[in-house]
Design a protein that fits this description.
The protein is 53% helix and 9% strand. The radius of gyration is 23 Å and the shape is elongated. It is built from eight helices and four strands. A four-stranded antiparallel sheet has the order 2-1-3-4. With 191 residues, it is an alpha+beta fold. β3 and β4 form a beta hairpin.
Length: 191
Amino acid sequence: MDMAWIWKSALLVIAGMLLLRIAGRKSISQMSVATTVIMISIGTTIVQPIANHELWKAIGSAAIFIVSLLIIEYLQLKFDWLENLISGRSKIIIENGQIISKHLRSLRITVDQLEMRLRQNGISNLSDVKFATLEPNGQVGYELMRHAKPVTIGELERLLHLKSGITMEQSNLFQETKTNHHAAPIDPKLQ
C-alpha cells in the first residue's frame, strides 16, 4: 500500500503555513481583492498534488502566488493610484447624521445592514454620527458628533484647567475620504 500521500500532505501543510506566514497576518475581513484571489488559488493549488503526484510544482506555484502578493502589496505602497485601483477607497455612507442612500446602493448595502454594523460599534442613534465610511476591508469607520463623543483625559484636564494652552487641532481622517487626498504630506518613506 502506497503511504506517500501521508508525508506529501504533511509537507504541503507545512509549506502552506510557511508561505502564508510570509504573506502576512490578516483576517479574512481585512484581505484585499488581490489577497483573497491569491489565497483561494493557493488552497486550490495545494490540494492538487495529492491527486496528481506533482508535489514540488504545487509548492513552487504557491510560492509564486505569495511572491506575486508581496509585489502587489509593495506596489500599492508605492503608487496611490494602484492602491485605489486594486483595493478601492473608503466611501462616505453617513454625513451629519444623514444616510447617503446613493452610496449605499452603489456598495450594495441595505440600511438594515448598516444599522447592524453601527449597533455593533455601540452606536444607537444615527443623529450622533458625524461621518461614517465603509472601508475597503468592509469595516465601518465613524466619527461621532461633538455632543456624542466621550470625554478624553486631555479634554477633562483642559476643562478643569489642569493644563492650559492646549489646542485641540487634529487632522481629520474623514476629510481625506471626502477630498480623495491626504491633508498633510505623507513621508515618502511610507509611500
